[in-house]
Amino acid sequence: MTKNIWLKGGRLSICVILLICGCNTAVPDPVTNGDGTAKLSGSLSVIATGVVDGDTNDPSTAEIDNNGSDLTKVQDLPNPSTVGGFLGTRGQGSDVFDIYRVSLAAGQSAVLLLADPTANDFDLFLFDEAGNALDTSEGVGRAEQVVAPTNGTFLVQIYGFSVDMSGDAGGLYTLLVGRSAANATIAPSEKLSSLYPHMPDEIIVRYKKGSTRTKSISATKDFDYEVLSTKANQSNIELVRAKRRSGSGGRGAQSKSQSAGTIAPILNRPFSDAIASIKQLRRQSDVALAEPNYMRFTQAVPNDEFYNIQWHYPLISLPEAWDITTGDASVIVAVIDSGVVLAHPDLQGQLIAGQDLISDANIALDGDGVDTNADDPGDRNIQGTKSSFH
């Protein structure tokens, strides 16, 4: 079988020979060649934004270093673009990752599609130009997706998890760059990321019904497991701790081979033992679900008994702000408004002398115009009229 890669957009004439087999349906007979075959001719359009991974095994193309040994020389991509690439055994070594540079608008995404997700497990990472991780997608399915948080230039890394951790011979991938994340029709159904706060070595495991479990669940290639607890009313759910074996791949290889350049030391790629073990557990036949033990954080809210009916505070993200600070009595905040209820219990001891800016005494009903007394009765209580302040 001959495989060809077209590097530039255009039109390609093709000729396909089809075998003709018996058929009982009433369809027109194709034009045959008299020998049981038929000829189908047409054209195949190659998209102009198509790009090929720069370090494949194709001897007819010049190699582009996109392994990240020098971030100034990684492979640049247009936006939009569709990249065809490969990770795995290459020449005398392994191609563990590919790194691309691309400019994205806020909300645009990069989507990774695997040709054979049952055999290959590749992950997708998004970095800023300084090498700091901004988004990761580390599941085990066909698709992974990362999203640009702002407008800018980013580094997109495709990491061959199964190549690095399991000695996988490798496989093909497609990278779709420049789609809107909100409109992406191809995206992972669930996001697994080392950046989400979780216990670094704990996993929640649910086993398939009928599976036989022991005190220690079945080990995976790089991890042993210790059962921490079993949910009393759900006998097929356990909390386990992953214990990395000495000499296993992935994180250990990264720390030991930076000088050799087999893992890009200039990219701060996050790595979690919990996520790595989950990826391996999800491929075990008796495991129905494996999830991180996510960390949840309480948010500071007032002890006001009526806080739950004050719907407007969450809309302006005050609970998140209160996690950072609940204020400083030395800070004075100026509020320009039509007035407050001075007798309100929440305001007692919180106000300083204000300024009356209502110049029309007939509206203010305070006997004068502008003065240093901010307490104006106003005209709201005049029968048959609305407040002039609103």
Model description:
- The protein has 390 residues and is mainly β.
- Strands 3, 5, 6, 8, 11 and 13 form a 6-stranded mixed beta sheet that branches. A 5-stranded mixed beta sheet has the order 4-7-12-9-10.
- It has 6 helices and 17 strands.
- It starts with 9 loop residues before the first strand and ends in a 26-residue tail after the last helix.
- Mean pLDDT is 78; it is low at 18-24 and 251-265.
Give the topology, please.
Blueprint: E1 10-19, E2 37-46, E3 50-52, E4 75-76, E5 81-90, E6 93-95, E7 97-104, E8 108-114, E9 122-127, E10 133-137, E11 143-147, E12 152-160, H1 161-166, E13 170-180, E14 198-207, E15 223-230, E16 237-244, H2 251-256, H3 273-281, E17 287-294, H4 312-315, H5 318-324, H6 361-364
Parallel strand pairs: 3-5, 4-7
Antiparallel strand pairs: 1-2, 5-6, 5-13, 7-12, 8-11, 8-13, 9-10, 9-12, 14-16, 14-17, 15-16
For the structure shown, list the relevant keywords.
390 residues, mainly beta, five-stranded mixed β-sheet, 9% helix
Number of strands: 17
Largest β sheet strand count, sense and barrel closure: 6 strands, mixed
- Shape descriptor: elongated
End-to-end gap = 79 Å
Number of helices: 6
| Rg over C-alpha atoms, rounded to the nearest angstrom | 32 Å
* Beta-strand residue fraction: 25-35%
Mean pLDDT: 78
Structural class: mainly beta
Helix content: under 10%
Order of helices and strands: EEEEEEEEEEEEHEEEEHHEHHH
Which spans of ≥5 residues are poorly predicted at pLDDT below 50?
18-24, 251-265
